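Researcher: Final request for today, and then I'll write up notes for the group meeting. The sequence and the SMILES for flavin-adenine dinucleotide follow.
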Amino acid sequence: MEKYDVTIIGSGLGGLVCADILSKEGYKVCVLEKNADFGGCLRSYIRKGRILDTGIHYAGSLDEGQILNQYFKYTGIRDKLKIKRMDEDGFDIIHRMGKEYKYAMGHENFIETLSQNFPKEKENIRKIIKTFKNIGDLISVDHLKQKKNFSSDGMHYFNTSISDFLKECTDNADLRSVISGTSMQCGEEENTSLYVFSTIINSSIESAYRFVDGSQQVADLLIESIKSHGGEVRNKAEATRLITHGKIITCAEINGNELIESKYFISGIHPSGTLKILEKTPSLKKAHFSRVNSLKNSFGFFTLSIILKGNTFPYLNRNYYYHDENSSWVDSNCEKQGMKKVLFCTPASSYSEQYAKTAQILEPMYWHEVEKWEHTTLSSREADYTAFKQKRAETLIEYIAKYQPQLKGAIETYSTSTPLTYRDYTGTKNGSAYGIVKDYNHALKCLLPSKTKVPNLFITGQNNNVHGMIGVFMTAMYTCSELLGTQYLAEKVANA
Ligand SMILES: Cc1cc2nc3c(=O)[nH]c(=O)nc-3n(C[C@H](O)[C@H](O)[C@H](O)COP(=O)(O)OP(=O)(O)OC[C@H]3O[C@@H](n4cnc5c(N)ncnc54)[C@H](O)[C@@H]3O)c2cc1C
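Model: Predicted protein-flavin-adenine dinucleotide complex:
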């Protein structure tokens, strides 16, 4: 039986960053991934020779001196990344009620640009953006330099509703709606906190980038780095049981037949999945299981991945968020009411700066829309599921063609995925895109600490804290701080 210092379950961004940090610090680590491919939502796949992404379409704070850049520097992969800075004067375009609004990069640029649409609201816009920046600064490089505990300062903002905050700042409903124009990145109006919203939006206002030829490069480079520090990363290795002895875990069982002994365990998968494989232990009461299993999960996505005919559709260095109605917030009634809220983007490729090779359309989708097929698997889905997906794809193409008329004629072929695909692929509960909802109404209940009641079990990934690239990196830092010490790790990253 192999013995490790730390066994990490899941090779998504959370698991890989933890493995990289700990292996760099001298821990003998092993990452277990159930799938053949590594990366979870970082994974890119190839169709007809074109690269398509699963779950990262853009990322923020990658300019020099910004936090994600610093994290990447610390991991040693920053200079190897192929990234493309998006349009400075409009990286996100919010299209609502027949008008376009630009999100510009840089706080002052953002304020000036949006004020052109809302001249009387300039001071209110400034107040809003200043708050987003203050919250974003809680995870800045400066904050790390002060060796501060990452988490505690933000609690007040976790308990505050973004929607209430915006109402306090302005009476202008159109402005509120434009500022929440990218909210499908965050969650629903009734539960999204000021903290989650600000952390995500502030990061892209600082700077917004695409990964050229896909986000898989991040997973591949992290794996290379982990291996260079003596760590192991195993595919087709599903953790099927966490075997306990008294209060602690002694071994992880892989694929029902192999045991791995370890001093510590970090789980980077959905907490319900962790509890499902954890053997009975006096460390955890039954009530804990019910509490975690009762937490709400975010909506998922219907994704339409399009292969474009050669040199027919321009590469657009910005994202388009299309909204049919006044409110930009996703809610479970949108589909019933025939209202669309859609993200359209053309991923960056090294083949051409001028033309797009692929396009992706993302539309939030709730579990109830696919629930009737929940007992099917990828290979056993019925014809009615295929018909459901095809109908949704055709509707979406027609919808986007209203705004991007060249699109229809440029499509060579397409593929689709639903929350069922994500459930089967990453194991996320109900195919949710962002895992457990960090609901401002019950922040204490929803925010699961990295340290669990089982003394040698820690958790990481999007379910603990803010989701997305920035949030998952930050959470990996919290998780690793449990073993390395907060001040020590903060200093190391700050001085990388
Ligand atoms: C459609 C979509 C679009 C998104 N767009 C963006 C974006 O543009 N920018 C952004 O920053 N964020 C985006 N996100 C969010 C971002 O992708 C996630 O928050 C982040 O990648 C989650 O990382 P993770 O490590 O927590 O989980 P995951 O990536 O889900 O990784 C979990 C891993 O664990 C593995 N696993 C599960 N069970 C087991 C087991 N028992 N044994 C072994 N392995 C197991 C899974 O196979 C998977 O590889 C998007 C998400 C989705 C779904």
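Model: The radius of gyration is 22 Å. The longest helix spans residues 383-403.
Researcher: Thanks, that's everything.
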